[in-house]
Specification:
binds flavin-adenine dinucleotide; Acyl-CoA_oxidase; 22 helices; Acyl-CoA_ox_N; binds tetradecanoyl-COA; six-stranded mixed sheet; alpha+beta; three-stranded antiparallel sheet; Butyryl-CoA Dehydrogenase, subunit A, domain 2; Butyryl-CoA Dehydrogenase, subunit A, domain 3; single chain
């Protein structure tokens, strides 16, 4: 059978130790063991099946998501899973749901922005899921511009309460995941008003629904915002709308790590920077970078395996056609994506470290690295999600016609992934933040302040001073170019973190060699993509450009025999991939054929509607009626 033999033969060609590469990909032997065990647990549990997801109506889809979430929670309790194992389980269930926001944003917000007492009160409830929370920041009128939010939280000194209110239609909370149908609580961001004075945006814990019958509490209007892009996909999530009509909450439900409101209505600032109110976004952006490597590697795994199974043209001496993976054009589109998946994995690891480091410093009242952490998380979130969204679509095209079938797994992956370019900060808005950070760094160059961390290279580039003078003309005017500069800065981070990874001790036969090839492919591909910029700025000569392209071609040949093993190293189960084209065994055609017959349209041989709409045309009754 074609697919079986092809993938088995590809695997036998690998020139490196795949098991050791799995460890590198996972991050450690321990993480590999956990993710391997939990992914199999999910794959073998029939409740977590997802093959009919794209065919369900919204209501059935959502109910099925609730069923899975409840089952996941039950298994987590029964098996006494650790926090790490539980997070892996939710990851492999692979269905956006209210749980993501509860664990991914609600809890981290209370941890990051709540006082010790507030954490003690709310976290045990949230950890045991006695309450379910979401993150209600974005409004109908404002998402990117957080300082433009309109919801108000007015302090009432008479009752020692805040009055949460939506003064306009555009102040309606709009988008928060988990809000529409499930959450009992939310961290709501609103303007803090004391004695008619506006102190800007802060977070407040607000109960939304009764814990007895799940009905909205008085003064609260709440619902789902409607169908989103694609079938299945992000429609498993109840993104919601929420309005407040003078809803009262106790004073101690304002998150008070950054600033406190006293019983007398006095605002007291802590010694931490006010930007910590934005802290959850930094945390989630960092997570999104690691997630990008998962989504991209998943698409690349499907496209690579299928490219080795698929044959078109080029009849060989043995009478069979050429595997499409052997075409140089296919390699030049696929292998840079394979390299990007690895590159994003390693930059994600580094970003996780950076985030932990900044947190430890914050505990010790050292706030010096916060601006860099913000710039890195914002910029890398933008770069990796844009590249991943484009990469998934490229993988679909790499799979030809079959890539467009839902059973390839790629349409749903694309639909579920693309909002990552928008949520947690629109990618352009985030790059503008990076640009501001870069300009600020450049402006300090002359003052004797040495650039550090990811901007250390700036101290070595003389032209940057002139660059600063040019930007003085107007940030807004030059913003399109500045966004390009921000992307270039982030690309430099990705490449340098890949190189740093290679400097670590990497065990396993041939593993380091493969990673070196992938690192070079990533760097040279970026150079190739932006050749115009490199040449026009005199960074490289035309001769160097052509050498770089020749080197890239030779690297593709080096990676070719290892391609299947390099995607096997992601260690994805067929359940997680949910793709007929990406099956581990390569048994593509019989399964594609089998899948087609499962479509509800094939339940009957003659379709519903035949008698009303097809027969009259065929029998020319419609035409006769007209005549
Ligand atoms: C298990 C876990 C799973 C995780 C996944 C969960 C599922 C995910 C599912 C998806 C869920 C999706 C969920 C969702 O989508 S949740 C909603 C997400 N929303 C956004 O991301 C909104 C984006 N907008 C902003 O962040 C702000 O409005 C920006 C930044 C654009 C402007 O801001 P602002 O209007 O204030 O003006 P400013 O630019 O003068 O900035 C002022 C100063 O502040 C500094 N600054 C700015 N920002 C930060 C920061 N963050 N940390 C530290 N510092 C920061 C900045 O450098 C400047 O410093 P300086 O130059 O003055 O010194
Ligand atoms: C699937 C999904 C889930 C979400 N989940 C949540 C959630 O759980 N909680 C929550 O609070 N929010 C959530 N959001 C909201 C999300 O965070 C916002 O949609 C996002 O921050 C973008 O803001 P916006 O919609 O206001 O875009 P806009 O800012 O209106 O963007 C529109 C266009 O304007 C451009 N633009 C905006 N400002 C500038 C500028 N200064 N300079 C140049 N161009 C600019 C953008 O680049 C974009 O092209 C979610 C969104 C989605 C799609």
């Amino acid at each position: 059978m074609a697919g079986f033999d092809d993938l088995a033969s590809e695997r036998s060609k690998a020139q490196f130790d795949v098991e050791e590469m799995k460890v590198i990909w996972a991050g450690s032997r321990h993480t590999l063991e956990v993710s391997d065990r939990i992914s199999r647990l999910v794959a073998n549990d029939p409740v977590f099946r997802k093959d009919t997801r794209t065919m369900l109506s919204r209501k059935d889809l959502f109910k099925n998501t609730l069923r899975k979430a409840a089952h996941a929670w039950k298994r987590i309790i029964e098996l006494r899973l650790s926090e790490e194992e539980a997070a892996e389980l939710r990851f492999y269930v692979d269905e956006p749901a209210f749980m993501d926001l509860h664990w991914g944003m609600f809890i981290p917000t209370i941890k990051g922005q709540g006082t010790e007492e507030q954490q003690q009160k709310w976290l045990p409830l949230a950890y045991k899921m006695k309450i379910i929370g979401c993150y209600a920041q974005t409004e109908l009128g404002h998402g990117s511009n957080v300082q433009g939010l309109e919801t108000t939280a007015t302090f009432d000194p008479q009752t020692d309460e805040f009055i949460i209110h939506s003064p306009t239609l555009t102040s309606s909370k709009w988008w928060p995941g988990g809000l529409g149908k499930v959450s009992t609580h939310a961290v709501v961001y609103g303007r803090l008003i004391i004695d008619s004075k506006d102190y800007g945006v802060n977070g407040f814990i607000v109960q939304l629904r009764s814990l007895d019958d799940h009905l909205p509490l008085p003064g609260i209007t709440i619902g789902d915002i409607g169908m989103k892009f694609g079938s299945g996909a992000y429609n498993t999530m109840d993104n919601g709308v929420l309005r407040f009509d003078h809803v009262r909450i106790p004073r101690d439900q304002m998150l008070m790590r950054v600033s406190q409101v006293t019983r007398e209505g006095k605002l007291v600032q802590s010694n931490v920077p006010w930007q910590l109110v934005y802290g959850t976004m930094v945390y989630v952006r960092q997570k999104i970078v690691s997630d990008a490597s998962c989504a991209l590697s998943r698409a690349v795994c499907i496209a690579t395996r299928y490219s080795a199974v698929r044959r078109q043209f080029g009849l060989q001496s043995n009478g069979i056609e050429t595997q499409v993976i052997d075409y140089k054009t296919q390699q030049s589109r696929l292998f840079p994506l394979l390299a990007s998946a690895y590159a994003f994995r390693f930059v994600g690891e580094w970003l996780k470290w950076l985030y932990m480091d900044v947190n430890q410093r914050l505990q010790a009242s050292d706030f010096s690295t916060l601006p860099e952490a913000h710039a890195c998380t914002a910029g890398l979130k933008s770069l990796t999600t844009s590249a991943t969204a484009d990469g998934i679509e490229e993988c679909r095209k790499l799979c030809g016609g079959h890539g467009y079938l839902c059973s390839s797994g790629l349409p749903e992956l694309f639909a579920v992934y693309i909002p990552a370019c928008t949520y947690e900060g629109d990618n352009i808005v985030l790059l503008l933040q990076v640009a501001r950070f870069l300009i600020k760094t450049v402006s300090q160059l002359g003052s004797g302040k040495e650039p550090v961390g990811t901007t250390v290279y700036m101290g070595r580039v003389e032209q940057l001073m002139q660059c600063h003078c040019a930007v003085q003309k107007g940030f807004l005017e030059l913003s399109a170019d500045l966004v390009q500069a921000a992307v270039a800065h982030c690309q430099l981070i990705v490449v340098s973190k890949f190189i740093e990874k290679l400097q670590q001790d990497i065990p396993g036969k041939g593993v380091k060699g493969q990673l070196e090839a992938l690192c070079n492919i990533y760097a040279l591909f970026i150079l190739h993509k932006h050749l115009g910029d490199f040449l026009s700025t005199g960074c490289i000569t035309p001769k160097q450009a052509s050498l770089a392209n020749a080197q890239l071609r030779s690297l593709y040949s080096q990676v070719r025999p290892n391609a299947i093993a390099l995607v096997d190293a992601f260690n994805y189960t067929d359940h997680y991939l949910s793709s007929v084209l990406g099956r581990y065994d390569g048994n593509v055609y019989p399964k594609l054929y089998e899948e087609a017959w499962k479509d509800p349209l094939n339940d009957s041989v003659v379709p519903d509607g035949y008698q009303e709409y097809i027969q009259p045309i065929l029998k020319q009754q419609l035409r006769n009626a007209r005549l």
